[in-house]
């Protein structure tokens, strides 16, 4: 290999590789790295989009407004003798209003939610309750969808991995929800979730004797998140199933034959053989789906609009509706950091996989 | 229970689960399809009907005006053209650029390879929302029209994906072909162009299809970049914000018709290329 010709060839190969990679890196620099840098820079300013007021450097002000939260205990209302007042109708202790305990300086805190703990009443306040709520909702959405999609996706993957007539057709059918554009499926489900019996779900619930047939799935806050989760589970379970199917197909089939000879039942085979061997695939699929769920936008924006935000749709509204470029940049950076943590986990779990093989 | 009855029971159970699964996957699409065949009055019936029925006589009737309305809707027709232009350009561009990168990453030996592999992999997970503000400012400052800006920016998610998937396809091609071409005196670029590229045509179709579907469905950038340019709106933007021209009611019949029209090409593609899509998706996501 020490010959001049070989090393010349290697050099040529290396030069060609750099030339071939250059376009990709130029494009990515232009649409990912440069905009990201400018987002980070803008997040420290009070930039307003398409405005003539000069942009000023504000340090961490945007982040402080976005992320400031506080928990304060709310004292019960007391009568003149100092005893807590009990509400006559509900029989529960009446509390002072949350506004009276939340700090106003340096910025006004507003209520996100109230909760009780050990018999005391607390309020969670934030300087931007909408953002904190969007973070919480996105996290709940992510945990619920990823969990449900894993369980259902596993069932679907095991089925389409089984041997039956029409397996090819079934594999095509499970791709349908994935292929329908999210904008379309969001509208489809919004129509099925209509708040009266023109909607599919209300009609079915009414036939089954559940509810009045007038459940406002998309305007009642208690139903909004479950509805979003249900739509996303329908839409993305197929994708999860495909990832798991790829993992299932890497498992050699002769180990199942051996297990059958040993008399291990299907459940035992699943928990003691399939699941452990799928560990790598599951880890990858989980983090991959988590990243996707954390940046959910289409679904929330189309179905709920400004009634309830995901982290991404909140950022979008701050930019387009309020033209708060600095502020929306800061929330972009927060989302980016959260996602990066998951991306690193993803890389790690991939690394583990390639080491094992 | 004998072994035979047990096996038969398992078979029945399997088919029950398969049926439930099929209904679950297809029902929303069926519901959209029948709703697109209902008139305003039929859509407003309570309880809703599982087939399009005449409100007065309950007879099965099909109403086709929604499709007529959709196909005479200028905004919708323009959106089809816009979506096609954007998705096809994005696909061709990312295939061209991505196959260069895929070849380099999959077959060539050079310094810094692991690093570049990790950068590309990291890019496949890059959140579009993180650069939305920066891209929007950049595009407005440079005055790039919406359609070219969509084409350029969609590469954010299609290019790393195509590069990554094509890398794994290139890697699986036997190196001997490449080496024998070199021995025959072909330059590396000739080898790439005349031997590797034809060999990877199937992989190109797969990745191209996935890039196309991704670009056809993209919503966040499309919505942002066309916020002041109605003529450049793509199908997802039009469908998400369907205008109700004649009544205050949301025109769900027309929305469903538009939705069916814009999903059918994708569903047809998915059915034709089912095997390849599964291979491409899983290669992109799972194979390390």
From TrEMBL, chain A:
The membrane topology of this protein is: Multi-pass membrane protein
Subcellular localization is given as:
Cell membrane
Q: Which Pfam families match?
A: BPD_transp_1
The record ties this protein, via Gene3D superfamilies, to: MetI-like (1.10.3720.10)
- ABC transmembrane type-1 domain ranges (all copies): 135-346
Q: Name one GO biological process term.
A: transmembrane transport
> Which PROSITE patterns does this entry report, sorted A to Z?
ABC_TM1
Q: Which GO terms describe its cellular component?
A: plasma membrane
Family annotation (SUPFAM superfamilies):
MetI-like (SSF161098)
Alphabetical list of InterPro entries matching this protein: MetI-like (IPR000515), MetI-like_sf (IPR035906)
Q: Which domain of life is it from?
A: Bacteria
Keywords, alphabetical: Cell membrane, Membrane, Transmembrane, Transmembrane helix, Transport
Q: Does the keyword Cell membrane feature in the UniProt annotation?
A: yes
Which residue ranges does UniProt annotate as crossing the membrane?
Answer: 16-37, 139-160, 172-193, 229-250, 325-347
**Assigned protein family:** Belongs to the binding-protein-dependent transport system permease family.
What's the protein called, per UniProt? Sugar ABC transporter permease
Q: Which organism is it from?
A: Litorilinea aerophila
UniProtKB/TrEMBL annotation, chain B:
* Any one GO BP annotation for this protein: transmembrane transport
Q: Which SUPFAM superfamilies match?
A: MetI-like
Question: What subcellular compartments does it reside in?
Answer: Cell membrane
Which InterPro entries does the record match to this protein? BP-dep_ABC_trans_perm, MetI-like, MetI-like_sf
The way it spans or sits in the membrane comes to: Multi-pass membrane protein
Query: Keywords, A to Z?
Result: Cell membrane, Membrane, Transmembrane, Transmembrane helix, Transport
Task: Report the PROSITE patterns cross-referenced here.
Answer: ABC_TM1
* Source species of the chain: Litorilinea aerophila
What family does the Swiss-Prot or TrEMBL record give for this protein? Belongs to the binding-protein-dependent transport system permease family.
Output the Gene Ontology cellular-component terms.
Answer: plasma membrane
Instruction: Name the domain of life.
Output: Bacteria
Has UniProt tagged this entry with the keyword Transmembrane?
Answer: yes
Q: What is this protein called?
A: Carbohydrate ABC transporter permease
Q: Where are the transmembrane segments?
A: 12-33, 80-105, 117-139, 151-170, 191-216, 255-273
Q: Which residues form the ABC transmembrane type-1 domain?
A: 80-273
């Amino acid at each position: 290999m020490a010959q001049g010709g070989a090393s010349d060839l290697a050099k040529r190969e290396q030069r060609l590789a750099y030339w071939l990679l250059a376009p990709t890196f130029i494009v990515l620099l232009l649409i990912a790295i440069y905009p990201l840098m400018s987002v980070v820079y803008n997040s420290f300013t009070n930039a307003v989009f398409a405005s003539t007021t000069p942009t000023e450097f504000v340090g961490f002000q945007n982040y402080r407004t976005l992320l400031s939260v506080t928990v304060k205990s709310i004292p019960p209302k007391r009568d003149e003798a100092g005893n807590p007042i009990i509400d006559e109708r509900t029989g529960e202790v009446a509390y002072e209003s949350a506004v009276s305990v939340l700090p106003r300086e340096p910025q006004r805190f507003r209520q996100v939610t109230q909760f009780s703990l050990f018999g005391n009443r607390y309020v969670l306040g934030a300087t931007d309750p909408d953002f904190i709520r969007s973070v919480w909702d996105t996290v709940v959405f992510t945990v619920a969808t990823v969990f449900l999609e894993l369980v259902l996706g596993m069932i679907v993957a095991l089925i389409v991995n089984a041997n039956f007539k029409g397996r090819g057709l079934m594999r095509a059918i499970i791709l349908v929800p994935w292929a329908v554009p999210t904008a379309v499926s969001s509208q489809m489900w919004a129509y099925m979730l209509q708040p009266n019996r023109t909607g599919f779900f209300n009609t079915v619930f009414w036939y089954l004797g559940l509810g009045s047939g007038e459940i406002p799935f998309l305007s009642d806050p208690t139903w909004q998140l479950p509805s979003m989760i249900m739509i996303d589970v329908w839409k993305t379970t197929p994708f999860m199933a495909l990832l798991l199917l790829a993992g299932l197909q890497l498992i050699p089939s002769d180990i199942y034959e051996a297990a059958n000879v040993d008399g291990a039942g299907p459940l035992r085979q699943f928990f003691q053989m399939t699941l452990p061997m799928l560990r790598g695939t599951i880890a990858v699929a989980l983090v991959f789906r988590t990243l996707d769920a954390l940046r959910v936008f289409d679904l929330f924006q189309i179905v709920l609009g400004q009634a309830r935000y995901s982290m991404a749709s909140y950022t979008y509204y701050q930019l387009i509706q309020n033209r708060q470029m600095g502020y929306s940049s800061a929330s972009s950076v927060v989302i980016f950091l959260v996602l990066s943590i998951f991306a690193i986990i993803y890389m790690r779990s991939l690394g583990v996989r390639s080491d094992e093989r | 229970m004998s072994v035979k009855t047990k096996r038969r029971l398992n078979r029945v159970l399997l088919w029950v689960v398969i049926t439930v699964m099929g209904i679950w996957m297809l029902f929303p699409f069926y519901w959209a399809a029948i709703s697109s065949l209902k008139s305003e009055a039929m859509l407003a019936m309570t309880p809703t009907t599982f087939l399009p029925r005449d409100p007065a006589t309950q007879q099965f009737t099909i109403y086709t005006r929604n499709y007529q309305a959709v196909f005479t809707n200028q905004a919708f027709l323009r959106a089809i053209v816009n979506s096609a232009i954007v998705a096809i350009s994005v696909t061709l561009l990312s295939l061209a650029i991505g196959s260069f990168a895929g070849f380099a990453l999959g077959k060539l030996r050079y310094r810094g390879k692991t690093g570049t592999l990790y950068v590309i992999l990291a890019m496949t997970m890059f959140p579009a929302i993180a650069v939305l503000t920066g891209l929007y400012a950049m595009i407005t400052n440079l005055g790039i029209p919406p359609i070219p800006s969509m084409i350029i920016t969609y590469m954010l998610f299609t290019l790393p994906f195509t590069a990554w998937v094509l890398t794994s396809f290139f890697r699986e091609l036997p190196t001997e072909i490449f080496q024998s071409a070199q021995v025959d005196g072909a330059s590396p670029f000739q080898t790439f162009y005349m031997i590797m590229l034809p060999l990877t045509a199937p992989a190109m179709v797969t990745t191209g299809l996935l890039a196309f579907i991704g670009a056809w469905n993209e919503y966040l950038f499309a919505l942002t970049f066309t916020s002041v340019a109605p003529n450049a709106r793509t199908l997802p933007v039009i469908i998400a914000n369907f205008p109700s021209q004649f009544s205050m009611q949301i025109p769900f019949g027309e929305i469903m018709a538009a939705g069916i029209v814009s999903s059918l090409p994708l569903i047809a593609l998915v059915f034709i290329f089912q095997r390849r899509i599964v291979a491409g998706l899983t290669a992109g996501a799972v194979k390390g």
